[in-house]
Fold these 2 entries.
Entry 1:
Amino acid sequence: MSQPEEEEPAENPTVGSEPEPRSTSVNPRAVCGVCKRLYREPKILPCLHTFCSDCIGQLEPFSVPPRGRSGEEAAQKDRAAAASVTVLCPECDAEVDIPQSGPAGLSTDHLALDEVFLETLVSDGPLGCDLCGEGVAESRCDVCSVNLCGFCRQAHRRQKRTASHSVQAVEELKARGRLCRPVLCSLHPAQELRLFCQPCDLPVCLECAATLHRDHRCRPAHDVIDHHGDRIRELVSVRLRPRLERLEESLQKQVEISQESLQVRVDATANEIRAFARGYASAVEAHCLSLLHRLEELRVQRRNHLHLQRAQLQQALLDVRGSVEFAERLLSCGSDAEILSAKGVTLRRLTSLAERGCDPHPAAVAPDDGGSIYFMPREPAGEVEGYPVVGVINSRTVDVSRCTVEGEGCQQGMEGQQEHFTLVCRDSAGEQLARGGEHVLVSIVHRKKKNCTVETTVADSNDGKYRVSYKPEEAGEYSVWVCVRAQHIKGSPFILNVKRKFRHHSGTFHCCSFCSSGGAKDARCGCPGTMPGGFKGCGHGHKGHPGKPHWSCCGSTVEKSECLPQSIYAAVSPGGHLRTVEL
């Protein structure tokens, strides 16, 4: 039988294949976390999470805006950013940099490849021989990473180049559960990475050391593994392992225990809230019943008051109607003697009725139809069963005798100027009402000129206050009538004194005609007096002179005063001479 020609071994026979998604029993260390398949060219990200090279290449770039760097540091970081791409790790969301060469520039995860091969040994059916492709694989060469049938295994042993390779039985590998495969050079697949280039910080094969790294210091891997392995072990055992234990302890004590305490506290608080809600609902229901009971009491009180008011109005109506009918019958049917004999009693009765019902401003009194009863939902109402509640029934009505006015505009004003004062409606306790809507009537009449009235405007502020505005056009004394529900408030009618508008002097504040003329020698007075020295102007001694400086236009002796027309003291004569007249 001829010996088959031995093929060149491949570093990873599974690389490039497209395995189907595995079942849930597959070793998770052999499955990519992105595509959920067995690893294909597994690459290690800087965060030490492994994914397929294709899966890493499909990650969307992640960029962060610069933070205002400057100088050489900014230039270095900009060059580094241009040479690499930042992505988010699908496992931990860490920001990791992908080299400019792409995922191929990342380190290969050979442990993941071992797990993939071990998974194929365990889960797949009989393996075929990688050399002849016909027989069933019984062994595997650890160096060449190929599966061998019995015949090819013998041929593999007879080859001088592969005679020293370690060949192990497939069944033994399956039973062992752990696979150690040699790491082969990507440039020289037949060469194992047995050397380490210290300047390049890379494992290399013999051929790479003789060609690409011949000027570098390359040492056997087993000579440097202790040094680099010790660094990793130191970081793990001295710094990270204790931190890992602290994190686990914190997770157990501070998180899990706190979560249990949190749940206990939340459950207890929820029970408190439910109990509070039940108690509050009970208090609100009790408050509601109390409000309805109070409302019923008000209805009965107002109804009784309306019945009484109705009886009084009916009696007043009967009195006036009977008196009017009697007086009309007396005048129409009675003789002179009969009228004169009944005159006294009739006049007394009619006068009494007229004075009792007479009002200077007749207006319909607003009936008590319940409009003064209203609900205030936001008003504090104290506590019920220990719970604060809101909502009260306001039944306060206006008491005319308690109403007041505020502001000086009710007592004094100025001719031609806008004036105002405020009416405050109060209840029987003297408290200001919190609502408006009352029937308010304000009238301002001149006390001497009955046909002289002032137009008024009443503005309801809807808070118990009413702003009264007016503008008097003539000075004098006025009567201000303020009525609420056709009744005078206390103090009404008020006396309003309207002053004249301030008038400035048009004359000269002087002591005599000569002085007031500025020393003019031809200034002449109406009197025959003359000044010594031949001047015609009079001095201070003539009749009617006030004896002191005075205004020539009105005669007022007060320099800073108002010019009043009715007190004109001096005037200028048509001839241009100053004339002093006696008041």
Note: The radius of gyration is 59 Å.
Entry 2:
Amino acid sequence: MQDEIALMPLSPFEDHEALNPFPTKWDFVLVCDDHSLNSEKDKKKKSFLDELHRKGFIIKMIKDEKLFYGVQAPSVMFRKYQWLLKNIDTDSEVISGVQQEDSSEVISTTRIRIVSFILQNIKIQSTKGLLENLHDLIKMKVFETAFPLHERENLGAFLKMNWARWRDIIYRQPIEEIRTYFGEKVALYFAWLGWYTCILFVAAVPGIILAIYGLISFSSSQISKEICAANTTMMCPLCDQKCPFWPLSETCTYAQVTHLLDNEGTVLFAIFMAVWATVFLELWKRKRAAVVSAWKLYLWDEEEEEVAMELINNPEMASPLHQHSYIRSTVVLILVGLMICVIIGIAHALVIYRVVVTVIFTQSDSEFFRERASTMAVMTGAVLHYLTIIIMSKVNRHVALYLCDMEKPRTFAEREKNVSVKLFTFQFFTHFSSVIYVAFFLGRINGRPGDYVRVGGKWRLEECHPSGCLVDLFIQMAVIMTLKQTLSNFVEFMLPWIRYKYKLLFRNPKSNNRVHMEESARDPCKEEWLWNYNLNEVNVFSLFNEYLEMMIQYSFTTIFVAAFPLAPLLAFINNLIEIRLDAIKMVRLQRRMVPRTANDIGIWLLILEAIGILAVIGNGMVIAITSDFIPMQVYKYTSSPCVQKNYTGKDCLAGYVNYSLSVFNVQDFGNHENLPEHKDPMGNVITHCRYRDYRDSEDYSYTVEFWHIFAARLSFLILFEHVALCIKLIAAWFVPDVPRSIKNEHLKQKRERLLKRLRRMDDSTEV
């Protein structure tokens, strides 16, 4: 059963397209249940359709298990759009969104965008006198959903065969075709993601070289040799009970792995990544300028287009005004601060978890768990951190949307911008609070033997291995980044695929297939609308989610890259998959997104610049605080054999391990009677043990070496950040945001436009 309703156009000078009751293409499809006649939902549905009727829309109804209403807007709306938004880049010669060959023909993305805006802003009056829009009607189950249609032929088929396939993973993306089909906002996302992925390869190469260098010198490090040979250097127990004194040589493998990350090339790589982040952004700005200039959108104004569509929808209705309230802003700021405190509190809970798990493992009867207690605690803590990220991501989204609604943004674009800043802030603290603790606090606030800092007065805080804390940071980042990029991508692709296959399998009983095929043959619209309906629904923030995912990845790739030089390589591999995964989702598994115009990536560019600054600070602190680079340099130039002019074949770092360990008198333990028997492997009674710090062996106060190293760390941090930031500023100045050719082209267009106006004025003066 089907019914068609052809509506008269808005004005008598409308073209014949609106008079055709059987358009070849439909702008949007509304879906609802078959409500009982004269019910409240049925009345609201009729009121909404009547409002469309009054605006001149053509409406076609098809009945299946649901009611489908295809709508097509009258061409007068698009002519108004063309007139109001003549492209100022070319002085009205070419109109954005209009095919130049025929000024009356509007491309599908523009039609869909305008119709979507009108549908979302049509308001009907309820029985209670309230105004309700389409969003309200969907919440009240009057309509189930509304969506534009995919093209199963022409451009849609082209994108399926040349873009949305795994076999095309290494091929160039058809950005122009993506723009024509999905709009400029989606096209710019894929242009940026493709550019980011290409530049990631440049960052991955030195990271791989650094890792290879570490592997080559795996066993040749002087510090590793000393630790592996320290069989008689007895370390203080790692817990209060059942933990024996242990020889330093047990951390031999750990020390060798540390050298993979903490070697001579780490500082150079950190500086390179700071410069890389700046050059990447500057080159993207040039790429973006070239792309949007070719699209005639360089001077496009988002607010102007929004106002134009408001006038097309209802010229009598006043546009919403910008609002600002210092009281609301203060409340939002306080709530944001409280949310950040909650996220940091969760990070503290993870710290307590690691402390308790470390105690449990060290007191285990299994020798395997006792020897690897600290590593197991860090790894399981990283997995638990990943699970909290998944949970808090949903909580953060709801909180960010709620806070954004409190600010009462004027337009969707303003709302998206506000949500972006808040949600990224929440997600950043969710992802990095625990990482920051491991990088800068682990092993530095735990006290010393005989005077440990305890959680709840019972459990000792964690300690770093004598070989350093960098491996703990490496493990934390590797686990989180690997899980996030594998499991998250798997879920992101498989859930829509399973939902889509499930709908195809159960949408119609087999007994009705013949009837369904006969009806589809009589009306091809039915098959097309049902196919689109069975695709997965697109969230209004779906593209926002993709950007957010990439911003978090970019943070992992840059901020702590000194501790994880393989991060750019993992990000590069992930993004090759991510591009095709997103393409397949958008073209094959999801309904068509409502196209939106854009001439840049919006607030995300500012977020990228902020991450670049944090990358300089983060990597500088990793090298100055987490790494042993500074203590090694202080030893090399103050106490090493090289300073003492002793060049008899000794390495300059010879003796550094003994230099970095303090001495503790076993008799000074407060729980001395609970310790195991104090004998070393040679059978000698242990009277002293070593621990990682710079303290006096008599009163355990900080030694002169501690203050030398502290001053050197602080000096290096200030110097590194200033040098790196200066290099960033020089690189930003050296690489212009807009290519010279684009500037000259715009200059030429301006001159021609003004010259044409001057000639018109002269002609009118002569007349």
Note: The chain has four domains: 2-148, 175-630, 631-734, 739-767.
